[in-house]
Design goal:
Elements lengths: L3 E7 L7 H9 L4 E7 L4 H10 L11 H9 L7 E5 L5 H10 L3 E4 L7 H14 L3 E3 L7 H11 L6 E9 L12 H4 L4 H4 L4 H17 L3 E9 L10 E8 L4 E7 L9 E7 L2 E6 L5 E6 L5 E4 L7 H4 L12 H21 L13 H19 L5 E2 L7
Parallel strand pairs: 1-2, 1-3, 3-4, 4-5, 6-9
Antiparallel strand pairs: 6-10, 7-8, 7-14, 8-9, 10-11, 11-12, 12-13
Length: about 375
């Protein structure tokens, strides 16, 4: 497959997520980094883009200039990644989709449920690929768990427990730290703090691995650090459309926890446990048997896990390569469309606009539930009920 052209909006110098996207997009040689509007400061963005090797005429001052410039080119980008502040995702993503560009959007895809449903509609109407960077679902061992569930190894799934809790925002002295403050400011973060930031990753992973969508939920929110308008801790009980019992805890004040993303899936014939801080291993406990350690790179794993494993068994693969795996899937899907062939079915596991819409609907539902003292509410977008 020949290389595809890739562009980036946001993710400039000093960005937390920008390097992961640049590394991920180019890790496997599927994409060329050819265009960018990398900073809200036009001059700074253009200069940084050129320092990364982008030609001056494709180092844009803002996303609108990039959209206009790329639309006019015969060698236009095949995929654009939107890695800007949350409140800008909807406008930028919609504009590129309407112009016929494929988009990978950082999460949350939108700030409102209505915007999420609109992105789904625009993507379907334009015939474009719209993906959301729920990259944890692209770890090889997350794909292994999904395949085991789908293969019936666990039998009927009864319970899923998701956790994304850390302690890095526990210090009240960070009240004026701009890298922390915005996450609890409704004007910048929207209706939710920690649930919208980390909780939706865990919730998406639970749905992805079980192959079942969240139908309803009950939430309890807390702001443990004085002065925060939005929650820094949340406990969510949920039920899936297929009847799975779900538990989710997400927090930023759990001192001693570092990253904290874990997933446990329990069925009638066995259970699985995975922790992102030890991403190479899944613990598999068959009913009545001994606990087994499944290792990334083991020749006995499923094809879904093997296709996304790059290095030999025992060698770690971390966050940037999980992001890279999203690009592997997108390169296959976009390349197949360009070549007029069917894509590898395994590549279709990438997180889609519907996942982004479901996630933001779950966030808004959790806020409504917490405000109502934990009342059970429908967690789905109205168009998906």
């Amino acid at each position: 497959m020949s290389k595809l052209n890739w562009g980036l909006v946001g993710g400039g110098e000093g960005s937390q997520i920008g390097p992961a996207h640049r590394l991920g997009a180019q890790a496997d040689g599927h994409f060329r980094f050819v265009a960018g509007a990398l900073d809200h400061n036009p001059d700074k963005g253009r200069a940084y883009a050129q320092s990364l090797g982008i030609a001056p005429d494709r180092a844009y001052g803002d996303w609108r200039a990039m959209l206009a410039g790329e639309r006019a080119r015969d060698d236009r980008i095949d995929l654009v990644t939107v890695a800007t502040p949350n409140a800008t995702h909807f406008e930028i993503t919609r504009a590129f989709l309407e112009a016929g560009f494929n988009v990978l959007c950082e999460k949350p895809m939108t700030m409102t449920v209505e915007e999420g449903e609109e992105i789904v509609r625009v993507a379907e109407a334009s015939g474009t690929v719209c993906a959301v960077n729920y990259c944890y679902s692209a770890y090889p061992m997350a794909r292994q768990m999904r395949a085991m569930v789908a293969n019936g190894d666990l039998g009927t799934i009864r319970l899923v427990v998701a956790n994304f809790s850390h302690g890095h925002h526990a210090d009240a002295r960070d009240q004026d730290n701009p890298r922390v403050r915005w996450r609890y400011d409704p004007a910048q973060a929207g209706v939710s703090g920690q649930m919208a930031d980390c909780g939706i990753h865990a919730l998406h992973l639970a749905s992805f691995v079980t192959g079942d969508e969240v139908a309803k939920l009950s939430a309890d929110f807390a702001s443990c650090v004085p002065g925060r308008e939005l929650e820094d801790d949340a406990m969510v009980n949920f039920r899936t459309e297929g009847g799975i019992v779900g538990r989710l805890w997400t927090s930023t004040v759990a001192i001693g926890r570092q990253h904290g993303l874990t997933l446990e899936v329990y069925g009638e014939k066995g259970g699985l446990r995975w922790a992102q801080e030890q991403p190479n291993q899944v613990l598999w406990q068959p009913l009545g048997g001994r606990t087994e350690i499944l290792e990334k790179g083991d020749g006995t794993l499923t094809a879904d896990a093997a296709r996304l494993s790059r290095v030999v068994i025992g060698s770690p693969e971390g966050f940037p390569l999980a992001v890279a795996n999203i690009y592997v899937d997108l390169a296959e899907v976009i390349g197949a469309r360009r070549d007029g062939r069917a894509p590898d079915p395994a590549a279709l596991h990438y997180p889609k606009a519907t996942d982004g819409a479901r996630s933001i609907a779950a966030v808004h539902s959790a806020v409504a539930s917490a405000d109502a003292g934990g009342e059970w509410v429908d967690a789905r977008p109205p168009t998906m009920r």
